[in-house]
Design goal:
The chain has about 600 residues and is α/β, with parallel strands linked by helices. Helix content is about 50%, strand content about 10%. Strand 7, helix 10 and strand 8 form a beta-alpha-beta unit. The longest helix has 30 residues. The model has no long low-confidence stretch (mean pLDDT about 95).
Length: about 600
Amino acid sequence: MGLGFTVDTPVRISKYGISSVISIVDDVLLEKMREHYCRKLEILFDPISDKIEDSRAKRTTAYLNLIDKIVKEEFEEFKNYASENSSELEKYMDMLPEYSELKLSYKRFSQKNNSKNELKEWIQNNLIPGSADVNIMTKVDKENYYKNEKLSSEYNDAHAALRGYAKSNLNSSIVLSAGFSPRLYGYFEKFEDFYPDENGYCKKKIILKVSDFRSATIQGKFLAKKGLWISEYRIESGLNCGGHAFASDGYLVGPILEEFRTHKETLIQTTFEILKSSLKNKNRVCPDLPMDVKITAQGGVGTSEEHQFLLDYYHLDSIGWGTPFLLVPEVTNVDTGTLKTLTEAKEDDLYLSKISPLGVPFNSLKGNTKDVEKMELAAKGRPGSPCPRKYLISNTEFTEKPICPASRQYQNLKLKELDSSNLNDEEYKEKFNKLAEKSCLCVGLETSALLRNEINTEVEGKAVSICPGPNMAYFSEIVSLQKMADHIYGRTNIITRDDRPNMFIKELSIYINYLKEKIKEAEKPISEKELKYFLAFQKNMNDGIEYYKNLFANVMVMSEEAKFDILNDLEVLEEELNTINPEILVEREQALAYAG
C-alpha cells in the first residue's frame, strides 16, 4: 500500500477490531505525521531533529508510541460509548461476517434481558482493538554515513526502523517483505520483545511475506535457529498484487497454497524443534508446545466467493484485502484527484511498470500525477528528482557512494554518457525514455498522506505516486468502511462489471503476458541459460493449469456457474500459453544469424 496510504490507518479503524499495517520506511513522514497528530490532539510536540544520533529509530519509536496511545484511548472511549449506545455496538457487529464467533456471542447475549452493567462487562471481556502492525521492506536497507564515515550496519535504514519498532510500546507484529535478509534477521536477536515466554507469548510477533513453501521453510528455520518464531506466513501472489511485484518462476498461487495446506504441520513441527534447541542454548525459556502459526493469503481477492473459497478449501486463517481499500476514505489516505483517477481506471490503466529505482517490477496507475510531473521535467530536458529522501539509492555506476537511478544527479550523468555515445535517433530515444521512466517513489508514495492531512508539501511537492494491484480495474465506487465490509462478506456487491475474471485466472493471464514480455526483452540471440529459464517458467504454468483443472472439476465449494467460467477461461489461456514456444524463437534467430 505504499508509504503514506496507511500511515495512520490504525487510528481510523483499530477501534473496530480491524488490524492494519504501517510502513516504517520513511522516518521523515512519520515525524510529520507525529507533529500533525500532536497539534490536532493538543499534545506537546517535541521535534526529533535528523541531526541527532539515531534519529531514524527515535522518530520511529516516537510515532509508534503516539499511535499506540491514540488507539488505546480511542478504544476505551469507543467501549464506554458503546456501553451507553447500543447502536454503536450494532454498527461494530454489522461489519463482522455472519460466522464470526464474536458476532454469534453477541447475538446470544443480546437475546437476554441484560442490564447496562452486564453489557459493559460483556464489551470489556470480548472486544479487542485491531493490531497496529508495521512493515519493513528488507531491501530498503541502505548504509548511512556521518561526516563522510560509514556507520555500522545497525544504522542501516531497515535496521534502524526495526530498532525503532522494537523499542516502541506496541504489542503487535512486524511484517517482513521483499526477500530474505540474513543480516537484518540476525539483528532481531538483540530485542527481548521478540522472544517467547513459557506460555508462548511474544509481545512483538514476526510475520513473513513469502512467495512459496520453500522460501517459508528456509526463512522459518533460519529465524528458529536464532530463537525467533514466525507467527504468520503471509502468502502473496507474485504479480496479482499492489506495489512491487516479485514474480515467481511461473509458480501460480493455487498450487503454492496447496503445498501450505498439505505440509503446514510439518513446517510447524520442524521449525519448533529447531526453536527449542536454540532457546535452550541461549538459556531461555521455551514453551512445551509449538506456538500458534497462521497461514494467510492476499493478492487479487475481489469477491466474497473468492474470499470464502480460500478460507474453506485451503484452511487459511485470514484473507488480506489491500487495493480495494484505496477507495475507502475512512481507512486510507488518498487525495481527491488520485481517487478520481482510481475510480475511472480500466485494465490498461493499471500496468506492471519499470518505474521503481529498485529495478523490481512495480504495479502502477497511468495518469498518476508523479508520472505526469516526471515526464514534463524530462520534456524540458531536466529529467530526474532532487532525491530528498535517498531511501532507494543503490547505483554506483558513476559515483563511489550509491545514488538513486531516479535522481537528477544520476540522470544528468547518464545523459552525458548517452550524448557521447554516437547513437542514432531511434536508439537515443529508446535509451532516454528508459532512463526517464524511473520515478521518485520515496516522495511520490507519501505525498497523498500529506495532502489528505493538510500537511505542508513544500519540499515534496504535490505530485502523487500510487501502487494499486490489477484488481482495481473492477472497483469504481468510493465507498464507506461498512459497505466494503458488506462486499467482503457477501452482503452486497460493489463490482458493477460482470466480466471480472476469477483471481486465479487473472494471475495466470498476467503471468503469461509477463513471460511474453521477458522473451521479447531478452538479448538476442537468446542464450541457452535464458531458454532453459523460459521453458521452466512455461512448464510451471502448465502444471498450474492442470492443478486448476483438477481442482475446479471436483471441488464442491464454488458455484457451478463460477466453475464453468473458470474451466472455460483455463482452456483459452492454456491455448495462449502453448502458442509461446521459446525453442522455435531461438531456432528462428539462429537461422537468421546463419543466413546473415
